[in-house]
């Protein structure tokens, strides 16, 4: 079959994400045959001189059978125990399967905290880059053994989108048990596969549902589309398809749904601020400050601030919120929350010299534009 998607076929570094349902069965846990089939495809990609980063779910699911659990645990402690047992089995199975292709794998376990803190984000980036430079294939997963609800990514689709930027990937392939995005639910009636998405408006009338929590997985088409948009807005083309179509997708054949790049690749700082940072508080702006930030992309000065919420420190990420409750931007604040009350509404010339710098510099700010709860 001729190459229909050169931006995928020509990607020199690709992130591939595979879900639990593609690697496991509920009664038997990890399915070595399914895993080996995927590894064979990825081994062929490596043999062609391309680099691969694998984001793999399946740790908790792989731990169910050894612990004689009938389904995915509902309590955190049991889920963490299953992940502890399953992660070892999962990575060892990958290591054995890739060894048949003379490929060494390295395990990279992340929590959301590792990417929401900028210093950790840079460390993750350096680790992945070094592994690839050494010829190692990184196998990335959320660290379910220690992750709590407060520091979870929520699903590995979003993790894969973040890793695609961390790894400076040229393409992202999201694999599951569904062969693409449909304009309806094919299980209940006629539905057409969406071949290409060039903007969010292309899916405006498509009902994607919500994230599912089935026997072994936690994702759903909604999470895959959200992740695809994150990567596409960061300049990375994405294919959403089923695991049996992995080889065809990686070869650039017209399978699944392609999300074309929807923006230029941002700097690591800009991407981190927009998609990976966790705001530590909010800075409330008057109308003049909103216009300055939004229309002129100016730095935020103390004169335009009407209030603050949260307990943040200098250099923490904060949301900049207008009087209508819309988040205008996200940025790194120059002052601790305890210092802010003395600065509110004051002109720069009226401040002591040590407080005359911008509250949020425009180079450390990204525009957002969404409503928040009151």
Automatic annotation (TrEMBL):
Question: What Enzyme Commission number(s) apply to this enzyme?
Answer: 2.7.2.11
Q: Which UniProt keywords apply?
A: Amino-acid biosynthesis, ATP-binding, Cytoplasm, Kinase, Nucleotide-binding, Proline biosynthesis, Transferase
Molecular function in Gene Ontology: ATP binding; glutamate 5-kinase activity; RNA binding
Reactions performed catalytically: L-glutamate + ATP = L-glutamyl 5-phosphate + ADP
CDD domains the UniProt entry points to: AAK_G5K_ProB, PUA_G5K
The UniProt similarity line reads: Belongs to the glutamate 5-kinase family.
Q: Which organism is it from?
A: Blastococcus tunisiensis
PROSITE patterns per record = GLUTAMATE_5_KINASE, PUA
The answer to whether UniProt assigns keyword Amino-acid biosynthesis to this entry is yes
**Name of the protein described by the UniProt record:** Glutamate 5-kinase
Q: In which pathway does it act?
A: Amino-acid biosynthesis; L-proline biosynthesis; L-glutamate 5-semialdehyde from L-glutamate: step 1/2
Q: Where is the PUA domain?
A: 281-360
Residue numbers binding substrate: 57, 144, 156
* NCBIfam families in the record: proB (TIGR01027)
Q: Which residues does the annotation say bind ATP?
A: 17, 176-177, 218-224
Keyword Kinase attributed: yes
Q: Where in the cell is it found?
A: Cytoplasm
Q: Which SMART domains does the record associate with it?
A: PUA
Q: What does this protein do?
A: Catalyzes the transfer of a phosphate group to glutamate to form L-glutamate 5-phosphate.
GO annotations of cellular component type: cytosol
Show the taxonomic lineage: Bacteria, Bacillati, Actinomycetota, Actinomycetes, Geodermatophilales
Q: Name one GO biological process term.
A: L-proline biosynthetic process
């Amino acid at each position: 079959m001729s190459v229909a998607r050169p931006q995928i076929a020509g990607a020199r570094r690709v992130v591939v994400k595979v879900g639990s349902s593609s690697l496991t069965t509920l009664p038997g846990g990890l399915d070595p045959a399914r895993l080996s089939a995927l590894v064979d495809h990825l081994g062929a990609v490596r043999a062609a001189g391309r680099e691969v980063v694998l984001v793999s779910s399946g740790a908790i699911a792989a731990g169910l059978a050894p612990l004689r659990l009938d389904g995915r645990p509902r309590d955190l402690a049991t889920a963490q125990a299953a992940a502890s047992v399953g992660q070892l089995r999962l990575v060892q199975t990958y290591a054995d399967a890739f060894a048949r292709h003379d490929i060494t794998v390295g395990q990279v376990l992340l929590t959301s905290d590792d990417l929401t803190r900028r210093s950790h984000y840079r460390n993750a980036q350096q680790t992945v880059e070094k592994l690839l430079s050494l010829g190692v294939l990184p196998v990335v997963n959320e660290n379910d053994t220690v992750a709590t609800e407060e520091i979870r990514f929520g699903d590995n689709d979003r993790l894969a989108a973040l890793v695609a930027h961390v790894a400076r990937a040229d393409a992202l392939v999201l694999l599951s048990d569904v062969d693409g995005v449909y304009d309806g639910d094919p299980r209940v009636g006629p539905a057409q596969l969406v071949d290409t998405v060039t903007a969010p408006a292309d899916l405006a009338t498509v009902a994607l549902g919500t994230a599912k929590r089935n026997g072994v997985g936690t994702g759903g088409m909604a999470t895959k589309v959200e992740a695809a948009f994150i990567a596409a807005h960061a300049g990375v083309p994405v294919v959403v398809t089923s695991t049996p179509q992995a080889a065809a997708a990686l070869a650039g054949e017209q399978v699944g749904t392609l999300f074309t790049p929807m923006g230029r690749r941002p700097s690591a700082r800009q991407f981190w601020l927009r998609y990976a940072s966790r705001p530590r508080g909010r800075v409330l702006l008057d109308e003049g400050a909103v216009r300055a930030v939004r229309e002129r992309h100016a730095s935020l000065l103390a004169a335009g601030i009407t209030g603050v919420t949260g307990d943040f420190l200098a250099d923490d990420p904060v949301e900049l919120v207008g009087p209508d409750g819309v988040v205008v931007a996200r940025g790194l604040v120059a002052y601790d929350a305890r210092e802010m009350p003395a600065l509110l509404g004051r002109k720069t010339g009226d401040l002591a010299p040590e407080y005359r710098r911008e509250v949020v510099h425009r180079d450390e700010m990204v525009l957002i534009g969404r409503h928040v709860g009151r």
